[in-house]
């Protein structure tokens, strides 16, 4: 087990190191993304990727560290932030997530003929909170590492595109800075990408964008509870076999508990920052392990269809989101 943990830790250090290189830092990619890429590279090296002695440690990362990281992610959100913009924002975010998930699942499974796990993870990453949502959904449905890696890749690609396109769209959108911030928070993939786009537009846009985005993060909890029940209820089973046991994603309740705790208990700044960093490191180690377990031939077998799905969702979020905000907020 120790060897697998050590490998994930080294890949995580490499991810953080790459994210600090000035040229790469300008890309806006998080250490989590670099750790995933490093994991894929190392895992596909001859005579290294198949070592059985490290599998147990990798499983600890992809299961327990992943869940622990999601729980600590709750320390980045407070109920006060969520309630600040009122119930209309919660309804807006819930509507965006519902439409993207339902329409995306139809496009992915029916039109593009993608596997269910690839489709669901890609939709979750686009609809809710990027890579964190992909990882949380992966933990709830036990998806394949290749499906998870592909979903994260689409989030990185189109979230990065949104960081560039949205500030250019602002003068043409016909929205004030405050309302455009709501649009950013309701439709861009990752929290970091929302911050980058908000900063480019202005301080009022940034403030609203972050709050609206955090509401989307909070909605990850009911999403996981619903999708976990639905996923295993629809799993095919052999004739005469027992129905597969539905897994409740208990870490979602841990995430919610951390949000409530963070709302009413003020920790020393150093301790709070340390816990948030610990959660980020745990998620990065989990992503490194998932990358290591991903085989390039399996990614290649998925083809370009996941990117076609993610592009459809990007257009849906950008265009449909702009129309919705115009009707909802203006």
Your description of this structure?
By secondary structure, the protein is mostly helical. 79% of the residues lie in helices and 0% in strands. It has helices spanning 2-19, 22-25, 31-43, 55-73, 79-84, 87-111, 116-129, 131-141, 145-173, 177-187, 191-201, 203-218, 220-233, 250-264, 269-292, 296-302, 305-329. Helix 1 packs across helix 4, helix 7 runs parallel beside helix 9 and helix 8 packs antiparallel against helix 9.
In short:
Helices cover 79% and strands 0% of the residues. It has 17 helices and no strands. InterPro entries: UPF0324_pro, UPF0324_YeiH-like.
Mean pLDDT: 85
Low-confidence stretches: none
State the shape: globular
Count of distinct strands = 0
What percent of residues adopt helix (DSSP H or I)?
A: over 70%
Biggest sheet features = none
The secondary-structure class comes to mainly alpha
Strand content: under 5%
What is the succession of H and E elements?
HHHHHHHHHHHHHHHHH
**Rg calculated over all Cα atoms:** 19 Å
Distance between the termini: 56 Å
Query: With helices defined by DSSP (H or I, 4 residues minimum), what is the helix count?
Result: 17
Subcellular location: Cell membrane
GO cellular component, one term: plasma membrane
Keywords: Cell membrane, Membrane, Transmembrane, Transmembrane helix
Family: Belongs to the UPF0324 family.
Feature tags:
17 helices, 330 residues, mainly alpha, globular, single chain
Fold blueprint:
Layout: H1 2-19, H2 22-25, H3 31-43, H4 55-73, H5 79-84, H6 87-111, H7 116-129, H8 131-141, H9 145-173, H10 177-187, H11 191-201, H12 203-218, H13 220-233, H14 250-264, H15 269-292, H16 296-302, H17 305-329
